[in-house]
Amino acid sequence: MKIHHLRNATLVIESKENFILIDPMLSAKGELPPFARFKHKAQNNPIVPLPSNSSEMLSKVTHCLITHSQKWGIEALTHTDHLDKAGKTFLQKKQTPVTSLKNDAGYLKKHHINITTELEYWKEQEYLGGHITAVPAKHGHGFIHNMMANGAGFFLRLPNEPSIYISGDTVLTDDIKTALEKFKPDITVVAAGNASIDIGGDILMPIEEILEFIRLSPSKVITNHLEALNHCPITREQLKGELIKNDLLEKVYIPNDGDVLEISN
Known about the structure:
single chain, globular, seven-stranded mixed sheet, 27% strand, alpha/beta
């Protein structure tokens, strides 16, 4: 298995003939508005371009997983850092087979996205000869997660490949801990940018929860959601420093945009 990290939460899982795109935010640098204007520097998003190897990788995509896309079915309230206009256009043109939460499927179908699998929390379904399970994700502490609307993480077990758990946009919860204990994934992916918007508190794990997630993960961890959006303040260097202080660095990959990680059983 290879993990191709493109930018933010967008990555491609390469497994034999399958290339599974996760959360396509494909906008050019600065095409989206700031996600916070007061708490963080008001820069247009994304704050960096896609890596130079992204076009070649995207041309190989055979399937797509979307962890979350919209809030309460309201057209204007979408999670464009996981599915933006460019991402929708890409999926529409290719009619890529897409797997999403059942709660998101209606919205995505309305936008002519080819939904082939609709997931419900904790209900395992067959996927590409293996299995996939959606795990609840809580998009913030306190009242803010209701405003954000919650998506999912995905536990994916493909034939003769390491298992992978993409935790999605979430803070650390009992559901996350249960998934790590129950599935014992060979690789986990954590959104480590510590995002927040102008109201409420953290909408992704703060550093203390990131460290606990890493400790609880049974094997290697990949971090993402770093240095791509204006409301994610943690840098790769800051995260690396915390991992060194807590003797966790050897357990963690902190990929740069465009990096390819080869994972074996």
